Structures are given as structure tokens and as C-alpha cells.
Amino acid sequence: MIKFFLPVTTVLLTLLPFASIQAQIVPDSSLPEPTIVEPGRGNTVEIKGGTRPDSGQNLFHSFREFSVLEAQIAHFNNAIDVQNIFARVTGGSISNIEGTIKAHSSANLFLLNPNGILFGRNAKLDIGGSFFATTAQSIKFADGTEFSATETQTTPLLTVSVPIGLQIENAASSIDVQGANLDVPLRETLALIGGDVNVSNGCLQAPGGRIELGGLAASGTVNLNNNSSLSFPDGVTRADVLLTDFSNVDVRADGGGDISIQARNLNILAGSQIAAGISAGNVSKRDRAGDIEINATGKITLNDNSFITNSIDFNSLPNDETFGNGGDINVTTDSLIINNGSRLITSTYTEGNAGDININARNTISLNGVGEDDLPSVISSIVGLLGFQTY
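Request: output the structure for the sequence above.
Response:
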């Protein structure tokens, strides 16, 4: 159902390659127990030490520079019982990630660099938990402490408390994904919080988990909720989100999987896609796809065969006893523009229900033109093999 609500020579030759690699990952001395960077096997850089208050769940690292070269592995060598790794960058350089970021066990990893973060085409994640990349100035905790990249004094002591927010001051720098494939394990969260978030020919995947994209263009706190979802403040100017050049934001799995995008303007261009739904069965009648939530205070534009879809795919067709239910697409914006064969669709080809499409547009909804397949721009909900509703 569709509802409308108007980022020595020989010795020297032996040492220089690693020196060059190591120079990209440079710890600072700001922590009570400092971060240690050592050579590992091959192109691996081992990141050890760090401060772990009361041997608790949190491990803190601090770097003057943190960039990962192509074919390099930056390995956070944490104890297996660490739940959260917080890595801040206190120098003035952006983090240019062209290799792999790795961590032990199921620890969540927070990468904090107010100067900007760029994921190049060979960037990868090898972590067992969730991944949060942010250009915020600090991470706030439930006991009132902050882990700041701009104010690095060591008092008060670091905390064993849980993170509850990202503090952004003024206009945050951008996070850019340029051809990278970034993914987290099943049921985990992948979050990119700027500043502007720009994804070009990139793929972001969190199967059955959660993807959060968004940013602020002014000072404010983005709250981190217990379920790893984020809440953006009201009345604070948001930053823009761009998906272009066949970019893909995907949480499809055997159920669950939510996507949330909070922006000023959201542009989904040049064959890019936002996809939730169920793409693997056996799927029981209790399974339900997650939802896509998009809130743009400005304009949402889909152009040139770009899609927002929440669907139960053909390869999850049921046997006699299994079927799944679709999730919703909820859109709040000033204006929604769908051009040149772009589509906003919920669908199911099983015995379950397709999700709803709920659009609250304060100004206009516009659908124009056809795509390369000569099919028109549409908003539609498709139910079963025969039923559909199209706007």
C-alpha cells in the first residue's frame, strides 16, 4: 500500500619499505597507556597497546596519522574480550584507507577523524563486529566523559561506560567512498557519519544488519542508541548524502536489515541503489524484511535508473510452508524527484505481504521520463505474481 502525506645500503633497503608503510600509521603519546605500532608479517602493521580502563570492555587508541596503504593490513591486535575499540586521529591529515582494517573477534570499531576519511577502491573491512566511521570531534559516553580528537588531555580518565553519541562541532569534514566495497558481518551495523557522505561506485553491505548514513553541517550531537541506530538532532542543519556511479547500499539477507539515511539533500544517481528485503530463503512466515527510513530536510533526487527497493526476491520463493513479509519504505522530505526510469518499489512474490510505501513530502512529488529500458519512473507496491499498485 502506498501512502502520501503531502570516510648499510642492504639494511636500508630492508627497512625502508616498512618505514614507509609505518609512517602512514603514527601513534601519538596522549593516552595513559599509549598505542604501539609494530611490523607484522608481510604488509601487516600490528596495532597493540592502547588504554583499557579497568580491563573493561573498551580499548582506546590514539594516532597522529592513520592511513592504510594499498595491500596493507592495519591489524588492531585486541584481546578477544574487548567489545569496543575507539581509534582517534589527532593530527591534521585525513585518513586515506586504501587497504584493509582488521580487528580480533567480535569487537566493534569506531574510527574518529575530524579531518576527513576516504575509502579508496581497495579498502576493505575484516572485523567481527560493527564499524562506525565518523568525522565528529568526539565520542560521548553515558557517564559524561568524552573521547575527543581535538582536546586530547588525559583527564578525566577514560571510561568503561558505553558510547551514547557523536559530538560534531561546526561543519564536519566529509566521508568519501570511492570504489570501495565495505561490509560487516551478519546482523552488524555499518555507519558513516559526517559531514557530507559521498559514495561513488562503492558498495556498502550489512546483511541482515543496519546501515546508517548521514551528517551534520553545524554543531550538534548525534545520539547512539542501544540497537546501534542513530538519532539526529532536530533544528540542526544537516549535511548532504550522495550515491552515484552504480553505488549500492544493501542489507538484504534472510530477514531483518534496516537502512537509515538522514540528510539535507539526498542524491541517488547514475544507476545507484538502496536495497533492503529478503534475498535468501528458507524464509518462515514469521520472518520480515527490515525498513528503509529516509529523512531529508531538503530534496531527494533519484536519476538515471536509480532504485530504492524493499523486496522479497525470486530466489527466496517459498516451499509449501515458508514465506516472508516485506518491509516498509518511509520517506520524509521537502521534495521528491524521480527521473529517467528511477523507481521506488516494495514487492513480494511469495504468500507474504509487501511492505508499505509512506511518503511525507512537504512540497512536491515529481516523476519524469523513462530509463534505458524504456520503462517509466514509478512508485509502486507489487504484491504476489499478479497484484500491484502504482503511482
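Helices lie at 9-22.
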